[in-house]
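question for whoever is on the cluster today: can someone run the full assembly for these? two chains, 602 residues total. i dont have access anymore since they changed the login thing
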Amino acid sequence: MNILLFVILAIKPEGFFEYQGEIFNLKGEYKFVGYSKLNLTSRQRISSSYFRTDLVYISYHGKTQYDLADFMPEYALPSIPFTYKSRLYFRNAFLRVRISPLTLQFGRQQIGWGTGYAFNPTNVFQKKSILDPSYELDGVDALRMFLDIAGSFDVDLLYIPENSIDSSSYGGRLRGNVKGFLDFSLGYLDYLSTYMDPVIFLPFKKKNKIFTLDFSTEFLGIGVHGEGTYNLKTKKKIGLLGIDYTFNDGLTSCLLEYLRNEEGKDNFRDYNPADWLDYLSGYTLTMGQNEFFFNLERIHELFTFKISSITNINDKSTIVMPGISYSFNDYTSLQITSYVGLGRDGTEYSNINDGVIFRIRVGF
Amino acid sequence: MFTLFTFIILALSPEELLSKVDSVAIFPHSIGVMEETIITTTGKKRTFKIKFYTKNGMDKQLMVYIFPPQVRGNSFLIIGDNVWAYFPETGRIRKIASHAKKQKMMGSDFTYEDMTMGTYKKKFKPVNLNEEKDIYVLTLVPKENVKISYGKLVLRVDKKTYVPLVVDFYRKGEDKPYKTLIQEDIKIVDYIPTPMHVVMRNNETGSETEIRTIRIDYKTKVEDDLFSPKRLREVSEE
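^ ran it for u. tokens below:
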């Protein structure tokens, strides 16, 4: 790893340093957890080849040890500990080779499927944070091939190796644009997904086969986007439909998204410990069947004010997240987001309680 | 001879002048780097460096932010009236809807709508032409059925180069210019008159955005497949 670090430093690294602190309410007591994060980016283009690495070192402090049961309603469960561990890892590390009309991309990379902002049901490999859906995601180890076909269409094939060929994930999508008006993709994925065993509370993996669809267009000038999946094994569908609108001042905009998740439950009394563990571990998208995301944002010069919320329509719980960001100078920005979970005990967002996150990032 | 030349100039119709103004801006392709400085109402400055590629005048544009580090790799692709944005944090490509084109582009005083205006003739028609010492004053209004925020543009066009040195943007129903574009330091690069310094001033708030062209090259051929949403991620990262 030291040699690798030396190589990366030799290629004029760029990147950012970030400090984040979070004060949050855990069972009536306020706690603090923070991290320092260094992201070193190296990239180089050599003829038709290009590589990029994002080497991240993250160091946590404060309350770093938790019990997953603390974030769930009270069940007679054994302790399920987890710890925020300081670590060094590659967020991205890939090589791209272009041999027109083919582009090959090998290594840890962003998948980038889907058009949704808060949720991306078609990107089954990366999960967004509900508190900050636009935050950068950790890449996925994949072999990828893009093939340009006629006009504005291409094919995106991906293979994610596992222990055996049978357990590996693979799939692809046809992506295109119709007359500049409609962006869409249609795809198929045979992928390995993780679930929590409802009896022994340990993760297990199983294969899923899904059809995927996403699109982005406009209707009467309003942005419309959507994406969805159909699971060939469970016959369950997940769909998202969103709209975005900018007010006449050009500074205020809003985004609404509705998610229909047939893998969720319509009555919170049916949530069981395995559902909670799947959800808290990021294995499932939402607890509820019907969820609604709202974001209102206003830019005032170097400040951005925003308020967003996610509501589980079935169990009537909501998380409300007002926030502000400020650009100190060309290199430094500050973001403060508070959140409060509302709803009856045992519902999806009521257990989140309340907290404040502040994040300072310096780019270089 | 002078009398004849003056007669020819005076004989220019508003339509002919508009064609000449547009013809200056229609170059086959360009590659370059510009520095954009946003000056807020309180005088604070934020600077961006943008690598740009254009084709068929400004009909196809690709802008990749290379500075500051916070926005490095953010990019915008414009083809005609369509705009796509790419954000490297999530690897997501987003098409920007018509309503969102009123938004300031990365906080500057240029909106997405300003960037997709293309040639003046595409969306505007001339209604009045006056002449001052070294300039023509040309008034444009939107063509019927064109959806645009502006109700009128007044161009002050340099008689020698046909470059609009000042453009006042009026909102519908208003008689004071909402924004003013100033183009100066006109240099002839590869036989094309090029404003090396451009300022867009918001007369309502007092903020302004200054663009300095650091490098521009009209000779190097720009591949057509660069201007495609499917290649946006690749081009932006590299």
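summary bc i know u wont read the tokens: Chain B has one domain: 11-237. The CA atoms of residues 15 and 108 of chain B lie 31 Å apart.
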